[in-house]
Design brief:
The complex is a heterotrimer of chains A (about 450), B (about 80) and C (about 240).
Chain A: H1 14-21, H2 25-51, H3 66-77, H4 81-90, H5 100-121, H6 130-133, H7 140-160, H8 164-173, H9 178-185, H10 192-225, H11 237-263, H12 272-303, H13 306-316, H14 321-339, H15 347-374, H16 389-412, H17 418-439, H18 446-451
Helix pairs in contact in A: 2-16, 3-5, 3-11, 3-15, 4-5, 4-10, 5-7, 5-16, 7-10, 8-9, 10-11, 11-12, 11-15, 12-14, 13-14, 13-15, 14-15
Chain B: H1 2-33, H2 38-69
Helix pairs in contact in B: 1-2
Chain C: E1 13-18, H1 27-35, H2 43-47, E2 55-58, E3 72-75, H3 83-87, E4 93-95, E5 101-103, H4 113-117, E6 124-125, H5 134-138, E7 152-153, H6 159-171, H7 184-188, E8 194-198, H8 205-210, E9 215-216, E10 228-231
Parallel strand pairs in C: 1-10
Antiparallel strand pairs in C: 1-8, 2-3, 4-5, 6-7, 9-10
Classes of the chains: A mainly alpha (about 450), B mainly alpha (about 80), C alpha+beta (about 240).
């Protein structure tokens, strides 16, 4: 794929304001489409409220289906953002600058959608407040409520804080709606003191958000691991889920980046090098994921414990064999084959691999949730689980809600952190030269430092 | 008007954090009352509470800090 | 582990099922359904695996899994350390002072976590609003509440009968005796395969049967300490 050469003069980030200030017809037609899909999901949910969970395909013993799968999946995707952007900022990876914002937006939106899924799954959503009135902190579900709330709060704030200087820019440009930007910019005037405050706060949050993010998916894995079910009761589920979450998160981030790069013409900002770096990260996570999957299933297989083996066999050779091997193929074989060579690490290939991984990680959640339930310890009449129109409609609605949320965000706020790019242009170059020099064995020469030359 | 909205959002954040601070001890009370693994719920609540406080604290720090740090001569 | 388990308990109601006697006739299933107002489900629901039974009879032909052999009734085993109560987010299922694992239907939020956590798959869910044909509705048991849609339910050892027995005993100022309180399935079993009583009382029938060399509990290795004890079949000479 040929890359357009940068033509705009340095210092002009007009490209980033354009989507906010000029809205095309494409935007509204896409929004209408997603809104329609979303409305269909809402309609299906209303039907479910009226007729009960019987409208879904769930049964006994498969008492958890699409909703819980999607819950785990969406919350997994949410690790794209905050975690990756926090780690990249913390390690001062300079290539992070155009990526962090999108990653954080994904987190905030997907977390809100994923967090709703357990509620959609409830038989009695009208009694939701019982969780507060009679909640049992000892139940892993309450751990989830707590840690997802904390993560949502932390990641929304973490999205918002780096947004403040950009909002102030929009306010100063007179972009409408002014009241929104005036409200959200909180009198940002880019004074040194304000910069210091924001910098401190971001540093603190950056560090806070990493353990919180790790805790979220660990706790989600505990929902399964704390029970005695074969295939769920596993000690490595915590790290396994976290690794899978980061893996699917990076893949989703790449898909979003490639799509919006095309739609909003961000080729100047999101260069092949960014995708190449993220692809390497994706490759590493793919291998980590495979390693954990392998460890998880080998212990079950080698131990030969009957219940554990029955679950394993339904996965690898029983009714779930096709999704299982598809998952291994798209999550491990394809990424390793395509991303490990420089020649094939091009943007269209990365898009293909990433879409595969997002699908593959969804299947992974399915492979974890359903077979363990479908093969209980004690003999039970078997019934295949097939999702009904309700579950499919709500799934489609959730995806539409995500797209819609992202579009609306992009309508009001820049998708690339403008001040971070500016900072990168003006300061980071010198800073990183200094930093590199401090890594070297020879002590920096005073005179060279003063003169500011290498 | 915008000022009021801003303070309202800070108040909401604190309302959120504080209501969780009330909720978690209440759940511990429930656990104690029903003789249901009190020690475990205590342990879990001790992990959860500081997180919310920190988030609310950081937000307040930023908002107050930005107000203090602004240049009053050119304020809108 | 919850503090309720040992210190606070007065009794521990339990059941012994002699698999040598069980013929798999299914009388217990029918009696239970009538006694506890367990709703019939529509034909469509039945085919998609939503049959509601608080007790079911598994047969050895279909038994590829790791339970006991032959025809054996499975009901809630009222574990001493139940995996289901541990995961409930709202205290809707709990171990009572009599060792009976109870369900509080008005509090249940229908998350179905307990169903997934139960290794014995004995909990059922109200996928739809329960419906009775008009005659059956008129003959529901007034002692047992009707469950709304969206909540989990399961065998309670007919604890409403314990309630009645307690009231009767209190009127006569005496303790509840085993003969006062028997679940419907035990009462109806034509082969007398089921025996019910207090496992805490060393002289009770259940206690002495539980000491039999044939006795075992389902999935003992999980450490759930069920109150339902199975006596396996004796070897037969052909």
């Amino acid at each position: 794929m040929s890359e357009p050469t940068p033509t705009a003069p340095v210092g002009l980030d007009e490209d980033l304001y354009r989507p906010i200030e000029q809205t095309g017809r494409g935007f509204y037609s896409m929004a209408a489409f997603f809104l329609a899909v979303f409305a269909f999901g809402v309609y299906q949910y209303i039907r479910q409220l009226r007729f009960g969970l019987g409208v879904t395909g769930m049964n006994q013993p498969v008492t958890w289906g699409f909703y819980i799968i999607n819950f785990v999946f969406f919350i997994g995707i949410s690790h794209a953002g905050t975690l990756i952007s926090a780690i990249l900022r913390l390690t001062q990876a300079e290539w992070r600058r155009p990526i962090t914002r999108m990653a954080e937006v994904i987190t905030a939106i997907v977390l809100a959608i994923g967090g709703l899924h357990p509620i959609i799954d409830l038989g009695r959503p009208d009694r939701l407040l019982n969780v507060f009135k009679w909640g049992r902190l000892q139940s892993p579900l309450l751990w989830d409520v707590m840690s997802i709330t904390a993560y949502f709060a932390a990641s929304t704030v973490y999205l918002y804080l780096p947004l403040i200087p950009d909002i102030a820019r929009l306010r100063d440009r007179g972009t409408r709606p002014q009241w929104l930007y005036r409200f959200l910019s909180w009198n940002w005037q880019d004074t040194p003191q304000q910069r210091k405050v924001l910098h401190n706060a971001m540093n603190l949050l950056m560090i806070l958000v990493i353990p919180v993010a790790v805790s979220v998916h660990t706790v989600i894995s505990y929902i399964f691991a704390m029970t005695l079910e074969a295939g769920w009761h596993s000690t490595i589920f915590g790290p396994y889920f976290v690794a899978g979450a980061i893996f699917s998160g990076i893949a989703a981030l790449m898909v979003v980046m490639i799509v919006f790069r095309k739609v909003y013409h961000l080729e100047r900002y999101l260069k092949p090098i960014h995708f190449s770096n993220l692809a390497k990260l994706l490759l590493v996570m793919s291998i980590v994921w495979f390693y954990l999957t392998f460890s998880e299933y080998l212990t079950g297989f080698f131990g030969n414990e009957p219940a554990e083996l029955d679950v394993l066999m339904t996965k690898i050779s029983g009714p779930y064999a096709f999704p299982f091997w598809l998952m291994v193929f798209v999550n491990f074989v394809v990424p390793v084959a395509l991303l490990s060579r420089k020649k094939t690490r091009s943007i269209p290939v990365i898009l293909f691999v990433s879409v595969g991984i997002v699908v593959g990680m969804w299947i992974e959640r399915l492979i974890i949730v359903v077979p363990s339930l479908a093969v209980p310890y004690v003999e039970f009449p078997q019934h295949a689980y097939w999702p009904s129109i309700a579950e499919i409609g709500i799934f489609a609605g959730a995806i539409a809600a995500f797209c819609l949320g992202f579009m609306v965000f992009a309508k009001f706020f820049p998708l690339i952190c403008i001040w971070e790019i500016e900072e990168g242009r003006s300061e980071a170059l010198e800073e990183s030269v200094e930093r590199f020099r401090s890594y070297l064995p020879d002590p920096p020469r005073e005179d060279a430092l003063k003169e500011g030359r290498p | 008007m915008i000022r009021a909205l801003q303070w309202l959002s800070i108040a909401l954040m604190w309302g959120f954090a504080l209501s969780l601070m009330v909720l978690v001890p209440w759940l511990v009370v429930v656990a104690a009352r029903w003789h249901d693994a009190l020690n475990w719920s205590l342990a879990i609540s001790l992990v959860m509470l500081p997180v919310y406080l920190t988030v609310a604290g950081v937000l307040t720090y930023v908002f107050v800090g930005l107000q203090r740090g602004r240049d009053d001569r050119s304020s809108p | 582990m919850s503090e309720t388990t040992s210190q606070l308990r007065e009794r521990r109601w339990g059941m012994v099922i002699d698999l040598d006697r069980c013929t798999g006739c299914g009388a217990c299933v029918a009696a239970c359904k009538a006694e506890n107002n367990v709703p019939e489900v529509s034909r469509r629901d039945a085919f998609s695996g939503r049959v509601m039974n608080w007790i079911r009879v598994a047969h050895s032909e279909s038994q590829e899994r790791h339970g006991p052999s032959a025809a054996y009734p499975i009901l809630c085993l009222h574990c001493d350390d139940p995996p289901c109560t541990k995961v409930c987010p709202v205290h809707a299922t709990y171990v009572g002072v009599d060792g009976i694992v109870g369900q509080t239907y008005p509090r249940c939020i229908g998350c179905r976590y307990c169903m997934g956590a139960c290794p014995y798959t004995v909990k059922v869910f109200n996928w739809h609003e329960p419906q009775w044909e008009s005659e059956l509705r008129a003959h529901t048991n007034p002692d047992v509440s009707l469950r709304p849609k969206g909540v989990v339910e399961k065998c309670t050892f007919c604890s409403h009968r314990l309630q009645t027995a307690r009231d009767d005993a209190a009127c006569e100022s005496r303790d509840v005796e085993e003969s006062d309180y028997q679940p419907a399935c035990v009462e109806v079993c034509p082969a007398r395969a089921m025996t019910f009583g207090d496992l805490r009382d060393p002289n009770s029938d259940v206690s002495s049967m539980a000491r039999s060399p044939r006795s075992h509990r389902m999935l003992e290795e999980l450490g759930t300490e069920p109150s339902v004890i199975y006596l396996k079949e004796r070897e037969r000479r052909v």
